[in-house]
């Protein structure tokens, strides 16, 4: 059976396209309705916030992403929006990096589906479409703008709300918005994209659809991280989109599985966690890891070392279990007999080196 997956139906791309947000929202506004803008608090009081086309009744919610999105945060935001007592919003607009993009997706879904967001961590558990939602990335690499998942850390697991309803109705790709990203963060999140491409292209699930997107994304990443281009921000924004499209029909692999463990147990963020894990995966992705190190060197990035050194046995076991539970990722990476190849002992050795 081939997967019949949905994609984002409306996309606008170009420098300054953020200025068209008002027109885009206009079509969705109802007489007494209101919009909710969920924006990364790094923009609190910044010029971008001033450009939000706020109309009467609209709300702006600042969110802090020092911790990656938790189910408790989603539930609190949904409660806050319901507390406005104005009925359902006409739309939710997420403005930020992968964290805010996932938060806005999940809030849209939980406004129309009962219970806690933790109940929907998994595959196709959402039954009712969410509120109309618009995603506007301010940091490139995760592919969250086009993916059908909203990754959340819950009380029991770090797992996405995966469904066709999770997809944005509209995305706005404006390369000007990434201007203020700190260099390290730019690199880590950019490498998330590069690693999506490597894991997708090297995986057993690869087909021509994924390959076409993955190869283009990889080419753009190489231009961004190994060459100098005036339009590097435009290139990385498209690389992120293409990388996300590539994994939509394939999967990520060992690096992402191991990074989920780092994130769940140590709270390591996605981009840097992927870099830390990838740096130990020569045995699985030799060429990709060698090129990644060249990119690190060129941009003078040094990764933290020894982050698992002080972990007790119970935490290490939990980290290994978290990683090895991601069955599709390992199947893509190592094939159907992956359990014989990636034993808990081997995963432990990899973690001990990080
Ligand atoms: P992020 O959204 O966590 O942001 C990282 C930092 O960059 C934050 O401090 C943020 O405030 C700052 N930032 C963002 N835009 C900025 C700007 N323009 N100027 C200055 N600072 C800015 O980082 P990320 O790497 O984009 O996202 C990681 C999150 O994405 C994780 O929660 C991860 O689970 C998720 N993710 C989701 C998917 C998906 O398909 N849904 C895929 C990969 C990762
Ligand atoms: Zn990723």
What is the string of SSEs from the N terminus onward?
EHEHEHEHEEEEEHHHHHHHHHH
Number of strands: 9
For the residues shown, what is the average pLDDT? Answer: 97
Number of helices: 14
Bound small molecules, deduplicated: nicotinamide-adenine-dinucleotide, zinc ion
For the sheet with most strands, the description reads: 6 strands, parallel
Secondary-structure-derived class: alpha/beta
Quick rundown:
With 354 residues, the chain is α/β, with parallel strands linked by helices. Helix content is 45%, strand content 12%.
Structural account:
It contains 14 helices and 9 strands. The protein has 354 residues and is α/β, with parallel strands linked by helices. It folds into 2 domains: 10-178, Rossmann fold, CATH 3.40.50; 183-352, Dehydroquinate synthase-like - alpha domain (Dehydroquinate synthase-like, alpha domain), CATH 1.20.1090. The chain has a 6-stranded parallel beta sheet with strand order 1-9-6-4-2-3, covered by helices on one side. Strands 5-8-7 form a 3-stranded mixed beta sheet. Strand 7 (149-153) and strand 8 form a beta hairpin. Helix 5 (183-202) packs antiparallel against helix 6. The site of nicotinamide-adenine-dinucleotide has 30 residues, from helix 4, strand 7, helix 5 and helix 9.
């Amino acid at each position: 059976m081939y997967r019949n997956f949905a994609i984002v139906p409306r996309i606008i791309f170009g420098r300054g396209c953020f200025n068209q947000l008002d027109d885009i929202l206009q079509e969705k506004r109802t007489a007494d309705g209101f919009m909710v803008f969920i924006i990364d608090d790094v923009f609190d009081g910044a010029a971008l916030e001033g450009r939000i086309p706020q109309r009467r009744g609209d709300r702006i919610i600042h969110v802090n992403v020092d911790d990656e999105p938790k189910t408790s945060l989603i539930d609190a935001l949904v409660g806050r929006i319901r507390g406005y007592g104005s009925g359902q919003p006409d739309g939710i607009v997420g403005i930020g990096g992968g964290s805010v993009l996932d938060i806005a997706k999940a809030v849209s879904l939980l406004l129309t589906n009962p219970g806690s967001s933790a109940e929907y961590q998994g595959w196709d558990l959402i039954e009712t479409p969410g509120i109309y939602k618009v995603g506007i990335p301010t940091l490139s690499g995760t592919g969250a703008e086009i993916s059908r998942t909203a990754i959340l850390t819950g009380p029991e697991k770090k797992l996405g709300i995966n469904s066709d309803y999770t997809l944005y109705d509209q995305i706005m790709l404006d390369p000007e918005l990434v201007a203020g990203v700190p260099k390290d963060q730019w690199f880590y999140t950019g490498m998330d994209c590069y690693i999506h491409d490597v894991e997708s292209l090297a995986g057993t699930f690869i087909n021509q659809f994924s390959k076409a997107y993955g190869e283009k994304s990889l080419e753009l990443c190489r231009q961004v991280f190994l060459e100098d281009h005036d339009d590097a921000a435009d290139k990385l924004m498209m690389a992120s989109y293409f990388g996300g499209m590539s994994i939509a029909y394939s999967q990520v692999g060992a690096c992402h599985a191991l990074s989920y463990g780092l994130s769940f147990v140590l709270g390591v963020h996605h981009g840097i966690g992927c870099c830390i894990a990838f740096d130990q995966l020569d045995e699985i992705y030799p060429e990709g890891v060698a090129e990644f190190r060249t990119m690190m060197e060129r941009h003078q990035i040094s990764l933290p070392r020894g982050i698992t050194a002080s972990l007790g046995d119970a935490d290490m076991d939990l980290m290994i279990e978290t990683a090895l539970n991601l069955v599709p990722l390992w199947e893509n990476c190592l094939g159907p007999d992956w359990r014989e190849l990636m034993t808990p002992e081997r995963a432990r050795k990899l973690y001990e080196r990080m």
